[in-house]
Write a structure and sequence with these properties.
- With 160 residues, the protein is α+β, with helices and mostly antiparallel strands.
- Among the domains are: 28 residues, no CATH class; 68 residues, Double Stranded RNA Binding Domain (2-Layer Sandwich).
- It is 43% helix and 21% strand.
- β1 and β2 form a beta hairpin.
- The radius of gyration is 28 Å and the shape is elongated.
- Keywords: Mitochondrion, Transit peptide.
- Its main location: mitochondrion.
- One of its GO terms (molecular function) is translation release factor activity.
- It is found in: Mitochondrion.
Length: 160
């Protein structure tokens, strides 16, 4: 039996005895840009002894269930004094996970400054927004110029 595996732009192609079978593969995605700036890795949550954790009763929308159960999580990072209260979901375990990741992000931002993941992602979003605003302004400026030119051309023949 003859088996040949070839990498292609869409994944891999396997040839078996003249039969062609396409196999999609995420690991061999050639379309990703090799020049793209890689994001810093996500920070690891701090050690258990570096913060205190408390479970509080929630508030806000969600009905009586939110107000009766202690599903909101409050974390206090002892070395920096950062206090977070998270009530993103009705689940205590999901809120704990979200709160720990947010605390890790905040601590990393304090330590690394502009090189932290949060700062890099924020800068990328800011630049994307600025490009969109610039493109929109250019589009409407060109439309206004075209309207002005059309109005000017319409006025000229009637003046003669």
């Amino acid at each position: 039996m003859l088996r040949i595996i070839l990498p292609t732009a869409r994944g891999t192609m396997r040839l078996e005895d003249g039969m062609r079978n396409w196999i999609s593969s995420r690991s061999l995605n050639v379309s990703t840009s090799q020049w793209a700036k890689s994001m810093p890795s996500r920070p690891k949550p701090p050690n258990e002894d570096e913060f205190t954790e408390a479970f509080l009763k929630g508030s806000g929308p969600g009905g009586q269930k939110i107000n009766k159960t202690s599903s909101a999580v409050q974390l206090k990072h002892i070395p920096t004094g950062i206090v977070l209260k998270v009530q993103a979901t009705r689940s205590r375990t999901q809120n704990r996970k979200i709160a720990r990741q947010m605390l890790a992000d905040r601590v990393e931002e304090l330590e690394k400054g502009k090189e932290s993941r949060v700062a890099v992602v924020g800068e990328a979003k800011r630049m994307k927004k600025a490009r969109a605003v610039k493109k929109s302004k250019k589009k409407y400026r060109l439309l206004d110029e075209a309207k002005a030119k059309a109005a000017q051309e319409a006025d000229e023949p009637s003046a003669h």
